[in-house]
Amino acid sequence: MLEPAITSELIESHGLNSSEYDLLLEIIGRNPTFTELGIFSAMWNEHCSYKSSKKWLRLLPTKGKNVICGPGENAGIVDIGDNQAVVFKMESHNHPSYIEPHQGAATGVGGILRDVFTMGARPIAAMNALSFGEINHPRTKGLVHGVVEGIGSYGNSFGVPTVGGEIRFNKSYNGNCLVNAFAAGLVDHNMIFYSAASGVGMPVVYLGAKTGRDGVGGATMASAEFDDTIEEKRPTVQVGDPFTEKRLLEACLELMKTDAVVSIQDMGAAGLTCSAVEMGDKGNLGIKLNLDLVPTREKNMTAYEMMLSESQERMLMVLKPEKEEQSRAIFEKWDLDFAIIGETIPEDLFIIEHNGEIKAQVPLKALSGNSPEYDRSWKEPPKVKPLKVIKSFSPLEGLLSLISSPNYCCKKWVYQQYDSQVMADTVITPGTGSGMVRVHGTNKSLAFTADVTPRYVKADPLEGGKQAVAEAFRNLCAVGAKPI
Asked: Which of 11, 77, 149, 399: disulfide with 68, CB 3.0–4.6 Å?
């Protein structure tokens, strides 16, 4: 297939500005191929590189006596004693959920679950934090219905209890909803897995579902602003299958018990590109892939499409060579694809072959560790105007106003759509400030909460941020939990 010419319009459509494209040219010393342009676009967008926020994210406290793994891996890990740890992560899926509410929210749940079991943990709890526009806004009803249904359908089918969360309505979200998904899992200390590749000439293995054209360019879409072409972005939203994800969970956990796994990474944003680059970057190795070996469910897929597809329920793994047949048998038992599609190499290169041609050959480190970083200009938020004088009202009128508000009324109509009892370890179900699950087979329990007051943050970001932490802290203390 003839690849398109690299024009200024094509570069702009990939979310790269002129200085970033100049840096790309400096790094590779020539004009990029179409596939290379797509790879740089995927790895250098806001969603994957945090190029505008990592300056500030580095300021967050990430160390503590219980912290086993902080930021930089698929999920965080905190020690809970007795050689056990809790693995957890919260992540947004805002743009996809606004474009296609059901699948956007469902794949947000699927992605966060994979982040947890990629680390070797079995998921034991899920939550979500949702923000929508005004209830009378023309898009709100459809968004709420689709997002809640998507979260419930994926989590319920996968078999993880949704034990808490929050939902709010405000005109600030009329233009885009916020959909944050959380998952937590349990793992023994000696069964934690990381993503850094190690060893030269080690097989790189594709695991899980087949690759299709769904979600191509999804990470770049998630980094862009919306305009009148929003409906054209619908094909960039991934499509999830919770039953395949459940099989992938069981196959991965079974494989992890065999001492076959060197490193493992889920294929989330930017799919095969991001997972391979992150494994190589963290292990100071290069990666060479042959896309002829990638399991696909659609005909005539190009290298560009395969590298940027965000088809769900897929993993990438570096495997011990002597364990190949044993590993293959496990995945075939679970009716999942298992294909050796490449190898680790000593050079700092990311090499992509397809149909006997080199479709991409670029320095791997430049895609991840050396991606652009910005110190954006900023200004103090405007001072909050004094509240208007509140008219006198009776206590009954005040009570009725509160309980009829969509932000303060009972949210049972939402959380009853989520299975909170599956796995039979839920101690506190949704409806209070925190959810709680037992650590099966022990006398311990884990409590989880998600809380923030956006109007406080808007009025004073510093104090609002403090208040969010304090409120979450209080929610946990209120159910007898010790924040860790």
From this structure: 77
Q: Which residues contact 240 (CB under 8 A, 6 or more apart)?
A: 103, 106, 107, 109, 110, 154, 312, 313
Within a domain: 61:
no
Confidence of residue 157 (pLDDT cuts 50, 70, 90): very high
Tell me whether residue 2 is in a domain: no
44-87 pLDDT per residue, tens: 999 889 999 999 999 999 999 999 999 999 999 999 999 999 99
Rounded (to 5) percent helix, strand, coil in the chain: 40, 20, 40
Helix 18-28 and helix 34-44: axis angle, to 10°?
Answer: 120
Domain ranges, residue 326? 8-54+195-370
The radius of gyration computed from the CA coordinates of the chain, to the nearest angstrom, equals: 23
Let me know if residue 1 belongs to a domain.
no
Known catalytic residue at 93: yes
Rounded Cα distance between 304 and 248, Å, is 25
Whether residue 122 sits in one domain with residue 165: yes
Residue 180 pairs with which residues in a beta bridge?
92, 129
Q: How does strand 76-81 pair with strand 84-92?
A: antiparallel
Q: Does 263 share its domain with 215?
A: yes
Q: Which of 200, 203, 319, 338 lies closest to 264 in space, CA to CA?
A: 319
Q: Total domain count for the chain?
A: 2
SS3 of residue 150 by DSSP: helix
Q: Which of 93, 95, 102, 354 is catalytic?
A: 93
Domain boundary pick from 352, 370, 388 = 370
Q: Residue holding tokens 């050079």?
A: 347
pTM recorded for the entire structure? 0.93
**What is the chain's length?**
484
